[in-house]
Amino acid sequence: MNSVIAIEKLNHYFGTGQLRKQVLSGIDLTIDRGEIILMTGPSGSGKTTLLTLMGALRSGQEGRLQILGEELRGANDRKRMMVRRQIGYIFQAHNLHGSLTALQNVRMGLEVHPQFSVTEMKARSAQMLEQVGLADRINYYPSDLSGGQKQRVAIARALVSRPKIILADEPTAALDSKSGREVVELMQKLAKDQGCTILMVTHDNRILDIADRIVHMEDGHLQPQAPSPQAPSPETHPPEIRKMR
Amino acid sequence: MFNLFQRRTPLGWLQLSHQKGKLLVALSGIAFADVLIFMQMGFQDALYDSSVRSHQILNADAVIFSPQALNFGNLATIPRRRLLQAQDVVGVESAHPMYINNVVWRNPQTRKETAIRVIGFEPDFLAINLPDVKEHLDRTKLPDTYLFDKNSRGTYGEAIKKINAGEKVTTEVDRKTITLAGTFSIGSSFGTDGHLITSDQNFLRLFPRRPAQNVSLGMLKLSPGADADRVVAQLRQHLPNDTLVMTKTEFIEFEKGYWQRNTSIGFIFSIGVFMGIIVGIVVVYQVLSTDVNAHMAEYATFKAMGYGNGFLLAVIFEEALILAMLGFVPGMAGALGLYTLARNGTGLPIFMTVTRAATVLMMTIVLCLISGTIATRKLQSADPADIF
Q1: Domains located in chain A, CATH noted
Q2: In this complex, do A52 and B301 lie within 8 Å of one another by their Cβ atoms?
Q3: Contacts 24+ apart (CB under 8 A), A122-129
């Protein structure tokens, strides 16, 4: 099986009764192994909901939602937890644990996988930090790192267990353009090395060129062809607005 | 299992130790609760122990006294001939009278009036089995001469120095002048501030309205090898029912039972212990719930990474256990210091026992786990879907 994500006629609702509101309607999306997909769209269009569904953070309600061969429609907590272990997450905020050093934070990405020994976990985490260019910062606490460095630690944490899918929600939003670019190129390089699939929600027009494919979300509907990077659509908010959210 | 433990990043410990200031505050809170619990338990046990200190040094295998007796300071009286009757029973070697009365006397040093307990017995029989009493007992054969309890509660330091230096120290009881000719040590209890020992003759002179045939306590020495329980059973049959017969152990329990039943001391101290536990729970809960709130985003991230609720619960309980263990140490140290202070200040036999230390440690762990359980309720709401 080649597709790691297979979504067909996916509908999703928030609220119940009178307040029930449809946020996703009739989503069809198939993503193959190794693809890098960017998802754009205005805020409130349902991008993040789709991302959390694909990340097994919510159960699917209607339609087919197959992640790594597991059907997640109506999946229970345990099944979703097991799927999550094979997915790497990169958030807009780095969400590093302030009481842990860079190395310990990365190591947390391995500890959920029982097959690694202590020495293996240490070696892999250190190696991963080296790959993101933080070899000399492995024993630093997040408070002693810059924004770009923190995001790179977060990437190391997401990638250290060699996940099959990386889900990223505006990983560059809190970074200046130079470090944003660096971070995305790093993700691209590491993902290609490991052969993993990346799905990234972004508003950042400067990084659209790394994508194999761009999809656009509008009012809960997915449009396969996004507006071209050269002529951004008027609905797309500039990154500054998202930052203030 | 050990392997699993070793593999795990000690997240709870790292979280706690990362913020040293907060940890110190938390530990002092727990230490405070522990000290509170230790003091309450210490005073409670000290009360019971102090009230039986004079029982434990009684040179008797069994005792007889009035059924109207309340406690050692209020024994009422029995006719002296019961002692002679008691000697009819096989196994009873000898019987000796003891007279006990609480009086108000003048502190020989400050000349202020205060309460004291007078104990009188035959100076040829060492009724109070203490080396100091044995040494000085002969002196009580002199008229109006007494031995003084140097561990009495109150200001007696200089007077005691003078007595021990052999100087003549006199004071007044009921407008009679008495001489203190030696010291011994029993100590104060909740029932009395201190003790005076004298001969039966001096005792009766001090209380002229009290007939010699009304004794407070009959002290029975049994023949060597006699079975105390069997002899006591026979005595109960032999003596009329205006007399209670008890072994020494039963007499000690009788006194403790009085203080447990007839005072609210047990209840008051139990409330104190309960308050200590509540203080501890509140402090630990505050620390843990603040910690959970502060790390909500991180916890949600861990959930997103595939960690289950069990992992997060373990972190909180790890924190709770660490707090309990670390907080107990200064709590114990503080309690030891305050015990010494209380012992010197009140003369109460307040000591740390292994049992009490273990009990309080267990209580601390349990209260930290209870707080942990309350604090973890918030964890369920750490929803990884919210952090995107």
Answers
A1: 34-59+76-243 (3.40.50.300)
A2: no
A3: A124/A160, A125/A156, A125/A160, A128/A156, A128/A159, A128/A160, A129/A102, A129/A103, A129/A153, A129/A156
CB contact under 8 A, A108 and B384: no
The dihedral sign for the CA sequence A118, A119, A120, A121: positive
| Chain B contact residues (CB < 8 Å to A) | 6-9, 11, 14-15, 17-19, 295, 297-298, 300-308, 383-385, 387-388
Q: Kindly write down the DSSP assignment for every residue of A202-223, as one continuous string.
A: ---GGGGGG-SEEEEEETTEEE
Residues of B in contact with A55 (CB under 8 A): 304, 388
pLDDT in tens, chain B (388 residues): 455 566 788 899 999 998 898 899 889 999 999 999 999 999 888 888 888 888 999 999 999 999 999 989 889 999 999 999 999 999 999 999 999 999 999 999 999 999 999 999 999 999 999 999 999 999 999 999 999 999 888 889 999 999 999 888 999 998 899 999 999 998 888 778 899 999 999 999 999 999 999 999 999 999 998 899 999 999 999 999 899 999 999 999 999 889 888 888 888 898 999 999 999 999 889 888 888 888 888 888 898 888 988 888 899 999 999 999 999 999 999 999 999 999 888 777 889 999 999 999 999 999 989 998 888 888 877 777 776 6
CB count, 10 Å around CB of A194? 14
- Closest-CA distance, B315 to chain A, in angstroms, reads 13
Q: Do B301 and A91 touch (CB under 8 A)?
A: yes
Contacts with A97 from chain B: Cβ below 8 Å:
11, 295, 298, 301
CA distance A229 to chain B (A): 24
Q: Could you tell me the two tokens for A27?
A: 């989503």
Q: Which residues 206-235 in chain A show a CB within 8 A of chain B?
A: none
